[in-house]
Amino acid sequence: MTKFIIRRLLLLIPILLGLTLLIFVFTRLLPGDPATTILGERATPENMAIVREALGLDRPLHEQYLQYMGGLLQGDLGRSFITNRDVVDDFLQRFPATIELSVAAILFAIAVGIPLGMYTAKRRGTWVDSAGTVVSLIGISIPIFFLGLMLKWLFAIQFPILPDSGRIDLVDYYVPRVTNFMTVDALLAGEPGGVIDALRHLVLPALALGTIPLAVIMRITRASVVDVLNEDYVRTAHAKGLRESVVDGRHILRNALLPVVTVIGLQTGLLLGGAILTETIFTWGGVGRWIYDAVTARDYQIIQSGVLMLALIFVLVNLVVDISYGFLNPRIRHS
Amino acid sequence: MTGAAVARPAEQEERSIGLWRDAFQRMRRSPAAIIGGAIITFFVLMAIFAPFIAPFDPTRGNLGDSYLPPSWEHLFGTNVQGQDVFSRIVFGSRLTLGIAVMSVTLGVTVGAILGATAGYFRGWIDATIMRAVDIMLSIPGLLLAIAVVSWLGRGVVQIAIAIAIVNVPIFARILRGSLLALRDADYVIAAKSVGVGGPTLLLRHMLPNAIGPLIVQATLALATAVVDAAALGFLGLGPPDPRVPEWGSMLSDTYRYLTDAVHLAFFPGIAIVLAVLGFNLLGDGMREALDPRLRR
C-alpha cells in the first residue's frame, strides 16, 4: 500500500511539470497582454514597452518560464500584474470560499444521493424506481447557471426566505477574517447568529452546485446496489436473520460503494469548474470567478497559479480516491 | 461466445451483424431512447424550419416593446432590445445543435485517432499520449474552454473548437481502454496468428468491437456540449454579435433583472434543459442497447 501511494505521488511530478508548461504557454497565447489592460487600448508603444519591461514581459519566453518555475519551487507565485498583490495572499483569501461552497455542495449530494440511490435500487422495477430515474436524469440535465437563477428567483425574490448573494450579512455581523471560512470565522468571533447567517447564505449556492453531483451519485449508487443485491452473500446475510439495516449497511452498501467513491472524486473536478458559474450568480468571492476575471484581464500570474492550484487539488482528490479503494476493498489492499 | 465464433466463422458473421441490428431493435423498445429521440427530432425540425416557425425576425427589436411579459403576440415575452424571445429560441436551436454536432465530431475524430494510436502502438507513444491526456483532464473542463475561447477569440466555430478540445482526452481514454481490453480477445489473437497485422488488424478486427462505448460517450458528449456552449454564452463568451440568438447568451445578465423579467431566464433555460435531457436520454438508451451484458 505504501509503495502504491509513493508510486502515485511520483507520477504526479511529470503531470504537474507538464501542467505548468501547458498553462504557461497558454497564457502567452492569449491575444493582448497585461500591459494593454493596465494602460488601455490607446496607450503609446513607448509606454507599453516601459510597462512590459517593468513586468519582465520583454524577456525571452524560456527565461520567463524558468523564473516562474524558480519562484514556484520556493512557494512564491509572484504578484498580480494588474493589482500588484501577492497571488498567494489573494488565493488564500478566496480559496476557502470555494472550498466551503464545494464541500457544502458535495456533502449535500452525498447525503441525499446515496440514500436515494439505495432506496430506489431496493425498489427496482416499481414506480418509485422509475420516478427516481426520471428525476435524476432531469437533475443531470439542468445546467448549474439555470438552476442557480431559478433557485435565486424562487427563494430569494419571489419568496424571500434566503439571502440572494454574498457569504454573510456584513451589516448585522462583524466577523474578522481569520481562516476565510465564513462559518468558522463567525464561530471564532463568538457570533452564533453569524454562523447561522453564513449557513443560510450557503444554502442556495450549494443546492445549485450540488444537484448534478447528487443526480450522478444517485444513479451510480442505484446501479451499483442493484448489482450487489443479487450476490450470494446478501442472501446469506438475510438468511442468517440479520436485521435489514445491518445487511444494508455492512453487506450491500460497503460492497457497492467503490464505483460511488470514484464518481465522487470525478465530480469534484466538475465542481471546481461549476464554481465559476455559481460564484458569478451568487456574487460569491471565490477562486472560480477570480480566475475567470484574470483570464479576461490577461493577468498571467493569477491564471498560471490559480489554474495550477485547482488542477493540483483535483489531482490530489483523485489520488485520495484511489487510495481509499484500498481501505474499502481488501482485495486491492492485499494484491 | 468469441471462442465458438472463431471456430465457426459463419456464425461470427451472423453475430457481428446481429449486434447492431439487435442494438437498434432494443433502442426502439427503450422508452428512454424513444423520448430522447423524439425531443432531439423536435429540435432538429425546429432548426430546419426556423424561418417558418418563428413569428418575428430574431435579430430585429423594437425598443418600444422591451421587457414585455409573455402574451399571445409574444409567446415568451420580449427582451431588453424588444426582440421576440420565442423567435430567438427557435433560431437559437440552429446554433446550439450546430455547435454540439461540430464540437463532438471534431472531438471524437481527434480523440479516436489519439486513443487508437496509444492503444495500438503501446510503449512510449502510449505513455506520452496518456500523460498528455492526464494533464488535460486535470484542468476543469469549463476553465479549459474559457481559456481556449479567450485564445481563439469569440465566435461559433471557436466555441465548438473549445468544447472539442475539452472532449478529446475523454474520447482518447475511452477508445484506448476498449482497445486494451480487446488485445487478448481470442479473435484478435486468432487474426494475428494467421498473419493479419498493422492497420488491418486495428481497423477491421479491433475498432468495430471497441467503438460501442465511444458512440455512447459521443451521444452523452452532445449533451455536455450544449451545456458548455450555453455556459460560455452565459459568462459573456458567446458569439460577439449580441443580435445572434444563442441560448446561453440569452441567459447572460438576466440575473440582474430576475425581479422584473424572470421570463428572460426561464424560457431559454427550459430550451437548454430539454435539449440536454434529449441527448442524455438517447445516450442512456444507447448504452443499454449496446451493453452486451443486457443482450437477450
Q: If you had to describe this structure to a student in words, what would you say it looks like?
A:
The complex is a heterodimer of chains A (335) and B (296). Chain A is mostly helical. Chain A has 14 helices and no strands. Chain A has helices at residues 2-29, 34-39, 45-55, 61-73, 87-122, 127-141, 144-158, 182-188, 192-229, 232-239, 244-281, 287-297, 300-328, 330-334. Chain B contains twelve helices and no strands. Residues 1-14 of chain B have low confidence and may be disordered. Chain B starts with a helix and ends in a 6-residue tail after the last helix. Classes of the chains: A mainly alpha (335), B mainly alpha (296). Chain A binds chain B through residues 14-15, 18-19, 22-23, 26, 29-31, 137-138, 140-146, 149-150, 152-153, 157, 269-270, 272-274, 276-277, 280-281, 291-292, 295-296, 303, 307, 310-311, 314-315, and chain B through 32, 131-132, 134-143, 146-147, 150-151, 153, 223, 227, 230-231, 234-235, 251, 254-255, 258-259, 262, 265-266, 269, 272-273, 276-277, 280-281, 284.
Short description:
The complex is a heterodimer of chains A (335) and B (296). Chain A has helices at 2-29, 34-39, 45-55, 61-73, 87-122, 127-141, 144-158, 182-188, 192-229, 232-239, 244-281, 287-297, 300-328, 330-334.
